Amino acid sequence: MGIGPGGSVLVLAQRRAGGGLCRSSGALLTLARRLGAPVGVLCGPPEGDAASLGRYGAATVYTVADSRRHPTGVAVEALAVLARRLAPAAILIAAGREGQEVAARVAVRLDSGIVTDAVDIRPGPDGPVAVQCVLDRSYRVESSVVRGVPVFTVATRSVAAREAPVDPVVRRLAVRPAAGVREVRRIAPVGAPAPRRPDLATAAVVVAGGRGVGSRDSFRLVDQVAEALGGAVGGSHTATQLGWCSPEAQVDVVGRVVHPRLYLALGISGSVRHRAGMRAAATIVAIDRDPAAPIFAVADLGVVGDLHEVVPELLAEIRRRRTTDGVNGTFGGAA
Amino acid sequence: MIVRLVLGLTITAVAFALAGRRVWMLYRLGRTAQPVEPGRTRDVPARAWAVLTEVFGQRKLLRWSLPGAAHFAVFWGFVILGATIVEGFGALFQRDFHIPLIGTDAWLGFLEDLFIVAVLVGLAVFAALRLLQNPARTGRRSRFFGSHLGAAWLVLFMIFNVMWTLLLYRGAQVNTGNFPFPHGAFASHAVARLLRPAGRTAGDVLETVGILGSLGVVLAFLVLVVYSKHLHIFLAPFNVALARRPRALGPLLPVYSGGNPVDFEDPTEDDKIGRGAIEDFTWKGMLDFATCTECGRCQSQCPAWNTEKPLSPKLLIMNLRDHALAKAPYLLAANDEVRETLPDDVRAEAQRPLVGAVEAGGVIDPDVLWSCVTCGACVEQCPVDIEHVDHIVDMRRYQVLIESQFPKEAHTMLRNLERAGDPWGRGAAARTEWMAGLPFEVPVLAGGERLPEDVEYLFWVGCAGALDDNAKRTSRAVAELLHEAGVRYMVLGGAETCTGDPARRLGQELLFQELAAQNVKTLDDAGARKIVVTCAHCFNALGNEYPQLGGVYEVVHHTQLLARLVGEGRLTPVHEVDAAVTYHDPCYLGRHNRVFSPPREVLGGVPGLRLTEMPRNRETSFCCGAGGARMWMEESIGTRINETRTDEALATGAEVVAAACPYCIVMLTDGVSTRKQQGRAAEQVRVADISDLLLRSVRGPGDGAAGAASTVDKPIVD
Amino acid sequence: MERRLGVRVVVLVKHVPCAAGAPGHAGFAADLRLDRAGRPGQLNEADEFAVDQALRVALRRRDVQITAVTMGPVRAVEALRRALVLGADQAVHLLDDRLRGCDALATSRVLAAAVTRLGFDLVLCGTASADSGMSVVPAMVAERLGVPVLCDADALTVRESTVEIHRDDGAGPEALAADLPAVVSVTGRCGEPRYPRLAATLEARYRPVRTWTLGDLGIDPAEVGRERSATVVRTVTPRRDGGTRVLVDGDPTSVAIRLADFLAERQFL
User: Of A12, A297, B46, C5, which is most buried by a Cβ count within 10 Å?
Assistant: First the structure.
């Protein structure tokens, strides 16, 4: 039972590990403006971030004290309280592991329908309509929520963030989790650097090199990218056979089967035996010289080019972004 | 006379008692083994013919000309000289005994003497060979590496003793006038001439000494035989008679326990799956181990052994034999109390796991077991028809199903087969990708339909043919050729699932049965009668193994069909393909199924191709390394089998390495790529299927109508 | 008479259509149900990892009982059979025609009721399912049960009365803990499931599978099912361009920037 345009829309803003707000928050606010009056919800010490939310149209911003010891408890509590208080048209949360969890729990609290990984949301006659791409992105589905306050998690990378500056009213919200509720707690500091290169089986990021790398010396490039992304190094069957990487790094039907969030294939054509080792990867990026290489049929992003030229440029770009990020602080760059 | 009779009969009795006791123990040991699977006595005519040609004709031995000829001589020597044993025993009773009717004929005397000489020559050849190929000098390259050399020399020595004592006796007999053959026995007479100067009395003594010595040596040899590998002289004819016919190649047998097939739907508690202990083998298996002559011909051909892996088929069989003999007291003990009283080393032997690492006291090391590519070169060579591959797979079955101990890379292949029906896990819907880009529509049988009457062939594409980028070319080429020739065919598309060959070779018999049953149902529902395949493993599974599950089809390999079409003029290879080519016989097409000529006929029909055979071709072809489910395991010991074979192919000077199986194509392509990367192969060398070359010749070069078959010439190698 | 067992692990599993198919092979019903081509259906791949993790807990302690639970039509029992082969001791099939078309809210409600009825110390799930991407069900179930949820675990350690996980989504590693009872969802990075022995495969045929209906769970049918779905699909359109597979070429610098953008958008930088 949403309220039509003009009603409020709750947006859960997120902070980046290094400080400042995520780009996704700007994108969410942009979407929220289509549906109603954006209300930002920010967990943790406010500082200058509330004003930043105003840049993207949040007229009201609620800040909630959050020690971040418990990753999602405070956000869930805050959204539930505000939803009951404001009866918004929708609740927008950035898709991702934490967002998914918060959204799910809020949906249960409010007995509300939920649509995840939306790529777009537009207003509709009966409430907001969310667009998803399902089944390996081969179908486009439009859905809406018919019970409760619609909860949406949004894959904001396809949403452009557009400014609409206002001067937000900042309110403090106090939430107290119910007595006896046991929460998840962190047992290591967030953003602590990985102790050493992760193991192939457990790595969230895997960078692998194949025949296209050309030599053991050039395999350095693979190592460098893995280091830059905090990932593990892998190799194709040929790379292992030729001794460019260790046998334990072989990603192949006869080697290791990996399940990373990101798989970066450098100079790998994508033979069926190699694909058997990495088909479970959530996101696949490939760089190869041959536009007809089978790897491009499974890559989410395919780069046709010489990896010996592209990779050094990529490493330089990554370095550049990492140094400028700290300087800029807010919505700069793409992070 | 009395003395020689008494002495003679006494030593005979003692020898027979000793030998008999041993034989009785061996018989009882065989009884502790499992009953044999049915079919071992079926088709008597074929078995009789096998005994005739292999035992009496020494067919398999003669494949190696020199040792074969020498062994032929020694074998026939033993047979013919049986007459002299009769004569010898007769002479214990009657001094001038001769065999009735023919016992004085010159030809018999000549024959006996001829073979005495032939045996001596044979022994000289054997000795020379053993010295030339002494493993102390040549190491692993010698086929005798690992054989019990001391015992072998002893046997040669004893045979020598048999011969010279026989000659001594016969020579002495000539001089005492008791020799049965006045004419013909040239060697005996020659020896007699040498002995004559000793005089008459000495001659009598020599005769008695000679006969007792001769008989004594023969009897001592008898005892030696039953205690050594030389037992093969008695066992080989039985082993050959009871061997799998036509040969222990091609299909693997289903799992049997106690002589009955194991029903995996509802196995009983006592069902033995595979071989987990030495007594789990059937008595035929025990017979195999006991018959081994340690000749090492199997070892010399084994691709694993030849690439520095620890597997030698000979050593495997010898280890099983030695373990069985060492454990025999334990197995033959009447009850556990008796077992308690056995010596420590016997009880320790009984504790040894059949398959296990050296540290754990394993009889067969896991690296040995899993290195096998089931190419069957060992079975092909073995002169006494030992069934090495069957024993290896049976041991694998136990390891996989009961212990769940097998190379963990194979988990991936098995899980993919279970979840997606193909070893790479791509799934049914991907099986139609290979058809893209062909200039015509490949006819796909819709689900639930039967093949129309006028469709002659079901084209079974197979997993590699549908999903492997390099093997897809073969499927496309075959589709184009069949289309060109006007052959009516259809494919099953996503309804195909893996034939189960890799699961079966690995030892996962349950999964094989499930996959095979599913395919039999699909094929029967489709009404398939004639099936054409491009993969040698599918060929073997569909044609030879599916009948075990009730699926009987006429399965033809694409090279056979293409050869026939060319022969009938329905395909005309007119365009020249100017290349030096060599042909690699796939193990599962050639050795296992005896299809050697059709691929060569096709190559011969293509103008411009110049075929040079590799040294190891046809029955002695050297495996590409992918069989025995090794395609799905990493090769981490020794050198690579596929690279070894690639080097052999490159050495012929060929620019095109032709093959007829996708596994071979994958392995050889890999090998050629590696060699190119290492600068050891020219850039223009490529690997191609027979159909690929034929298509080029039929269509012509660079013809767009050839579709995707001619566009991407370079293989996909990561 | 029920013996109070040490650690009760419940694994929530799902029966999904078989291995990935090419576009065009799946058909849609109005409620987003998929057509099943090829082999009928099987245990969701991610759930195999969950069952295996439960088995690993059981192998370290002697008093663990593992129950696999699924909500689905008649065929879904195949997923339970597979879970039993992989290590579950018993299984429960939540089978009721009126459950057809349940959304995530209703599904989590039904699963939570089943888990409550079973009694639990730890609930395990796979993180994603083949046919619907990252799942919200684990967090929802935890919320309904009033216990902590640890999502997307790459490594899992169960201690006396707490559970610890490590996870890394590409943006950096985290270590979290919670007191039992709790819900944990595991990714494929937690380790390949062990290959079952023949004995396990055969023996699993005799392990008990109970069937529960809505009545057994004490849930009013009017509160679940398609009619009660909180979300409604308005349209389904196939995409001609096969999705957002992007092929980029050009000079290395601009290509590198596009690459970096891509990675940054997805939080990998």
Answer: A12
Please give the distance of CA B399 from its chain centroid, rounded to a whole number: 22
For C195, which of B273, B411, B428 is closest by C-beta distance? B411
Asked if pLDDT for residue C29 goes beyond 70, the answer is: no
List Cα–Cα distances, C109 to A63, A288, C9, C212, in angstroms. 32, 48, 18, 14
pLDDT cut 70: percent of chain B above it: 98
Gyration radius from chain A CA atoms: 22
Binary contact (C20, B415; C-beta < 8 A) = no
| Least Cα separation, residue C165 to chain A (angstroms) | 10
- Which pLDDT tens digit goes with each residue over A189-198? 555 555 567 8
> Whose structure tokens read 């350095």?
A220
Quick one: three-class SS letters along C217-262?
HCCCHHHCCHHHCCEEEEEEEECCCCCCCEEEECCHHHHHHHHHHH
Ranges in chain A annotated CATH 3.40.50.1220 = 205-325
Instruction: Please enumerate residues of A whose Cβ is less than 8 A from a Cβ of B.
Output: 210-211, 236-239, 241-242, 247, 250, 252-255, 257, 268-277, 279, 292-294
Confidence of residue A91 (pLDDT cuts 50, 70, 90): very high
Measured between CA atoms, the residue of chain C closest to residue A178 is C146
Contacts of B409 in chain C (CB under 8 A): none
Q: Top-level CATH class of A7-173? A: alpha beta
Residue of A314, A308, A259 lying closest to A283 (CA atoms): A259
Distance CA A185, CA C118 (A): 27
Chain B residue with Cα closest to A273: B424
Cross-chain residue pair A271–B677, CB shorter than 8 Å: no
With contacts defined as CB-CB under 8 Å, which chain B residues touch C198?
273, 401-402, 404, 510
Measured CA to CA, the distance from residue C114 to residue B642 in angstroms comes to 55
Q: Residue C19: which of B427, B433, B495 has the nearest Cβ?
A: B427
Question: Tell me, which fold does domain A205-325 have in CATH?
Answer: Rossmann fold (3.40.50)
Could you give the residue range(s) of every CATH 3.40.50.620 domain in chain A?
A: 7-173
C-beta of residue B47 within 8 angstroms of C-beta of residue B96 = no
Contact between C175 and A187 under an 8 Å Cβ cutoff? The reply is yes
